[in-house]
């Protein structure tokens, strides 16, 4: 199945079981267990300029470290989404969307 790796696709996938009794009905959600783990995160580099002192020293190395740290966090989050089902793909999909409007000196 094709995916666009959009934020909306990162939510847990479910199907519903419809229970009907007379004129009443109830939808019971059931989480799918064979979906490839997908983690999406959007970050704005501007949010890190002061905290990480991106205006000083080797800016590129600092920004790369921020990306590396976030990606490692996302990989750990994806591991937590593994259900243990033998048909579930083990390799996750990870998308880190970076918004960079800052100008570094």
Report what the structure shows.
This protein is α+β, with helices and mostly antiparallel strands and 105 residues long. The protein has one domain (7-99). Helix content is 21%, strand content 29%. It has one helix and four strands; from the N terminus they run E-E-E-H-E. The chain has one helix spanning 59-80, and strands spanning 14-21, 24-31, 38-44, 93-99. Strands 1-2 form a two-stranded antiparallel ribbon. It has a two-stranded parallel sheet with strand order 3-4. Strand 1 (14-21) and strand 2 form a beta hairpin. It is elongated and about 70 Å long. It starts with 13 loop residues before the first strand and ends in a 6-residue tail after the last strand. The mean pLDDT is 86.
């Amino acid at each position: 199945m094709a995916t666009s790796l959009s934020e909306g696709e990162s939510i847990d996938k479910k199907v519903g079981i419809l229970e009907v009794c007379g004129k009443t009905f109830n939808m019971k959600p059931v989480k799918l267990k064979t979906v490839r783990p997908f983690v999406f995160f959007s970050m704005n580099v501007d949010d890190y300029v002061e905290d990480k002192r991106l205006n000083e020293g080797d800016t590129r190395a600092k920004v790369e470290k921020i990306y590396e740290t976030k990606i490692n966090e996302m990989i750990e989050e994806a591991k937590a989404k593994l259900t243990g089902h033998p048909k579930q793909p083990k390799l996750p999909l990870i998308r880190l969307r970076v918004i960079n409007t800052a100008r570094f000196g």
